[in-house]
Amino acid sequence: MDTAMDVVRRAAEGEIDHDELVRILKTWHYEPQYKTTGLADDWESVPNSFDAVEFAYISNLLTDEDYAAIVEAAPTAESSANGRMRGSSPVLQASPITFGRRGSTR
């Protein structure tokens, strides 16, 4: 596994199970996310950054609880995502009804 996104892809393909995915992502050392302030921000991705966790979350590989636990446990959570990770992800703060994620469990 070279990047955090590789881990997420392996989980999506069924090569690693959900518990292993969460365990790995909790201890991964993430690189900073680099975002510009232009129109293409949503298209930018750094494969070894917390972008991989966000991708896993929106792809339903992680529950709300998994995401929160990874944010809390991630070794570089304070420095990744330009300081926006710890408890401030717009996805994490959104109403579960908005995203249809009510009672999401794995």
Account of the protein in words:
46% of the residues lie in helices and 0% in strands. The chain has 7 helices and no strands. The chain has helices spanning 4-12, 18-27, 51-58, 64-73, 85-88, 90-93, 96-99. The protein is globular and about 35 Å long. The chain starts with a helix and ends in a 7-residue tail after the last helix.
Count of alpha and pi helical runs = 7
Which overall shape is indicated by the principal axes computed on the Cα atoms? globular
Mean pLDDT: 75
Task: Measure the end-to-end span.
Answer: 23 Å
- SSE string, helix = H, strand = E? HHHHHHH
* Largest sheet properties: none
List low-confidence stretches. 77-102
Number of domains: 1
Instruction: Tell me roughly what share of residues is in helical segments.
Output: 40-55%
**Structure summary, number of beta strands:** 0
Per DSSP, what share of the residues sits in E-state strands of 2 or more residues? under 5%
Question: Radius of gyration from the CA trace?
Answer: 13 Å
**What structural class results from the helix and strand content?**
mainly alpha
What would the keywords be for this entry?
106 residues; 7 helices
Topology of helices and strands:
Elements: H1 4-12, H2 18-27, H3 51-58, H4 64-73, H5 85-88, H6 90-93, H7 96-99
Helix pairs in contact: 1-2, 1-3, 2-4
